[in-house]
Structure formats: structure tokens, C-alpha cells
């Protein structure tokens, strides 16, 4: 790729990120419009003009100094313009959201059967909303690298017949089976994460990216990582991870994904999503490996995820929707420790690590492990290890 092509590719990635919809570049319009035909059309007769052959013929006759916006009366919009010997197509998108009553009125005014309502709503909701002014500015950036590029603008309104026939059955936009396939794959992905199976989860993620969808959300910058992060959060919660652990991992990756999302390329974004899936799966596996019942595993996860401010036994019981007494009995029978004894053991275990691996003061280590009273920390530490923190540090040094 030469320097000019690389620069254009960078602009293309930036424009896609800003607009939230696809930017296509092609030297063969017929091939591109063939690929887009199913996404553009929800009804063969109402949109009989949205064929690859018709669109390809149309763009061949366009001026090279003008951005054209093709508006379909059912809501699909494409913008296209010529850059050197390549055609640039932005979309499909729509310029406004609708509601159920507006959708019904649109179909009624065109003489369409009410049976088309659900299919039409799914298709229409799958189009990202983009303002025409943003498209014009983006076209200028793509062609000149500046918002101030001088380009003409022309809107092309296409009309179809008033007597509709049967809806199109081609493509994901009008296929209920394709929607069902996508939902099944999403559920399989979340089920794999909830079991800590990163191999299966990543395989389902790859499959999701290849499925036809009414809205290809996995290809939209910003949106895709956000949706996948939410799916991972829900799946990890199903797998028994504590909310505080989920939040810490989720927010960490939200920050990292936002940073890489600002770059034109997507490879870094995909790599971060893979790391996120693997980290959630690793934590779920560790949680599921504990030799306890799901109830006690959840309790252990909640306690160890925040040693400084863990929930109390009544708070844990309330979250788990059981009585405090029942939780205490179950926990003691499976771990051999009361909840307070278990928490003290985990805090002291964390403290021993800090004592041997850092030069932090004892009072700082006490605070870091949940003991605001350093003297009480020393007392508990001695009861667990048989020595004071200072003695432990001294004897652990090589």
C-alpha cells in the first residue's frame, strides 16, 4: 500500500468511527451493490429500484465533484461520490429514528400490508442514524483531508410503485431465521464466558462476526466493544463472579477500549476485546474451581474481591436472598471457618505478600488489607501466623 492509499485508509477508519456506519470504497460498483442489496431492501416491490444493476448504472452517470444522497422512502439512505477512479459509498443509514406508530403510518401510506410491520421495524431499527451534514463533512475529509473541501451536494429521491407485493425473503434484513441464528450465537458466547471457556467463547465471537445481521454491530467502532463488554459482564455474573470484581475488570477494559477506539485501525480494538474475554473467563474458571457449592463460591468471591470494605454477613445474605443464619451455617460447614474467620485469613494472607514483596510500612499494609487500627492488625496477624508483622518480614527475608 502506497503512502496515499494508506492515508486514505486512515481517513476511512476515522470517518467510520465518527459516523458509526460503514464506508465502502470500490472500483466495481456492481459487486459492491450486490453485497449491499439485501441490507438495503426489506420489500421487493416497494423498493424495486434498489437493485445492484440499477444503482451501478446510476453511479456511472454521476458527476465527480458532487456528493449524492440517495433517499429511499422506506428510510434507507446511501451517500456516494467518486474519488479518482474509485466510488466511495457511505451507508446504508437513516436520517432519523421512528416509533411504532410512525412506522405503521409509513407502510399504510404506501399501501403495504400490516403484516409487514414487524419485519419493517426490525429492518429500520438496524440502520444507524446519521445526519446529512456529517456525511457532507466526512466526504470532504475523505477527498481532501479537510472539512473545508468544496463539493456539491445533490439529493436523489427514488419513488416506487404504490401496489406492494410480497416482502423480500433474501438477506438478514428480512430473515427471521438469521435473527434467530444471531441470538443463538450470542447466547452460546455468553454461556461459554459464564463457564470460563475462553476457547469456546472466542470461537463463538468469531462466528458472530461472520453471521448476517440486520445491524452489523460487530463492525461498528465504539458500539461493538460496548455491547460485548456488557454481554461479558452479564455472563460473568451468571458464572458467579462478584459484582465488584466484574466492575473492576469491566471499567479497566472500558478505559482501554476507549483509548484504542480513537485510532483508525481496528486490530488493536479486536485484540483488547479478546483480552477482555480471556480475563473474564480466567476469573470465572478460578471461581468455579473452588471446592464449594455455588452459594459459598459466590460468598467467597464477594469477600475476596474487596478486603478493605467487604459486605457484612447480613448484607451478603440479603444479596443472596437467604437468611444470615443459614448463610453462616452453610459457609462454616463447607469451609470450616466462620465468615469473619475466613475474611481474617484472607486479609492476613494478603498482608504476608505485601510484607515480603514491598517496603511499605506496617500501618500502611494494615490499611491496605482492611485494618484501620494498626494495633488490632498486629494482634490478628499474630493470632494467625504466630508472630508479629515485623518478625514475619524479618524471618522471610533472604
TrEMBL record:
<keyword id="KW-0238">DNA-binding</keyword>
<dbReference type="Pfam" id="PF12833">
    <property type="entry name" value="HTH_18"/>
</dbReference>
<keyword id="KW-0805">Transcription regulation</keyword>
<dbReference type="InterPro" id="IPR020449">
    <property type="entry name" value="Tscrpt_reg_AraC-type_HTH"/>
</dbReference>
<dbReference type="GO" id="GO:0003700">
    <property type="term" value="F:DNA-binding transcription factor activity"/>
</dbReference>
<dbReference type="InterPro" id="IPR018062">
    <property type="entry name" value="HTH_AraC-typ_CS"/>
</dbReference>
<dbReference type="GO" id="GO:0043565">
    <property type="term" value="F:sequence-specific DNA binding"/>
</dbReference>
<dbReference type="InterPro" id="IPR018060">
    <property type="entry name" value="HTH_AraC"/>
</dbReference>
<protein>
    <submittedName>
        <fullName>Helix-turn-helix transcriptional regulator</fullName>
    </submittedName>
</protein>
<feature type="domain" description="HTH araC/xylS-type">
    <location>
        <begin position="297"/>
        <end position="395"/>
    </location>
</feature>
<dbReference type="InterPro" id="IPR009057">
    <property type="entry name" value="Homeodomain-like_sf"/>
</dbReference>
<keyword id="KW-0804">Transcription</keyword>
Amino acid at each position: 500500500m502506497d503512502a496515499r492509499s494508506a492515508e486514505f485508509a486512515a481517513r476511512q477508519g476515522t470517518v467510520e468511527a465518527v459516523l458509526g456506519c460503514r464506508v465502502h470504497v470500490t472500483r466495481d460498483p456492481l459487486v459492491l451493490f450486490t453485497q449491499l442489496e439485501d441490507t438495503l431492501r426489506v420489500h421487493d416491490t416497494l423498493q424495486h429500484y434498489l437493485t445492484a444493476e440499477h444503482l451501478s448504472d446510476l453511479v456511472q452517470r454521476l458527476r465527480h465533484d458532487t456528493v449524492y444522497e440517495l433517499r429511499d422512502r422506506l428510510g434507507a439512505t446511501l451517500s456516494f461520490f467518486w474519488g479518482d477512479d474509485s466510488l466511495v459509498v457511505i451507508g446504508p443509514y437513516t436520517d432519523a429514528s421512528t416509533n411504532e406508530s410512525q412506522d405503521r403510518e409509513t407502510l399504510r401510506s404506501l399501501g403495504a400490508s400490516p403484516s409487514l410491520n414487524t419485519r419493517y421495524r426490525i429492518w429500520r431499527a438496524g440502520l444507524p442514524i446519521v445526519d446529512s451534514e456529517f456525511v457532507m463533512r466526512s466526504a470532504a475529509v475523505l477527498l481532501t483531508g479537510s472539512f473545508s473541501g468544496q463539493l456539491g451536494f445533490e439529493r436523489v429521491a427514488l419513488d416506487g410503485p404504490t401496489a406492494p407485493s410480497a416482502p423480500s425473503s433474501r438477506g438478514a434484513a428480512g430473515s427471521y431465521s438469521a435473527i434467530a441464528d444471531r441470538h443463538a450465537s450470542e447466547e452460546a458466547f455468553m454461556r461459554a464466558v459464564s463457564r470460563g471457556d475462553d476457547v469456546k467463547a472466542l470461537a463463538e465471537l468469531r462466528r458472530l462476526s461472520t453471521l448476517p445481521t440486520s445491524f452489523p454491530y460487530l463492525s461498528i467502532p465504539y458500539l461493538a466493544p460496548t455491547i460485548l463488554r456488557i454481554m461479558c459482564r452479564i455472563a460473568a455474573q451468571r458464572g458467579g463472579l462478584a459484582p465488584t470484581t466484574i466492575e473492576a475488570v469491566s471499567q479497566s477494559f472500558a478505559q482501554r477500549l476507549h483509548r484504542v477506539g480513537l485510532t483508525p485501525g481496528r486490530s488493536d480494538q479486536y485484540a483488547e476485546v479478546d483480552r477482555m474475554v480471556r480475563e473474564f473467563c480466567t476469573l470465572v474458571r478460578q471461581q468455579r474451581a473452588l471446592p464449594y457449592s455455588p452459594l459459598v463460591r459466590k460468598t467467597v468471591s464477594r469477600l475476596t474481591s474487596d478486603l478493605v470494605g467487604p459486605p457484612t454477613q447480613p448484607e451478603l445474605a440479603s444479596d443472596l436472598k437467604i437468611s444470615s443464619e443459614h448463610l453462616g451455617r452453610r459457609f462454616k460447614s463447607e469451609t470450616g471457618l466462620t465468615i469473619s474467620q475466613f475474611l481474617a485469613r484472607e486479609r492476613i494472607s494478603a498482608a504476608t505478600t505485601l510484607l515480603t514483596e514491598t517496603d511499605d510500612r506496617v500501618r500502611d499494609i494494615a490499611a491496605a488489607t482492611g485494618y484501620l487500627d494498626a494495633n488490632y492488625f498486629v494482634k490478628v496477624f499474630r493470632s494467625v501466623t504466630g508472630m508479629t508483622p515485623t518478625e514475619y518480614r524479618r524471618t522471610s527475608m533472604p
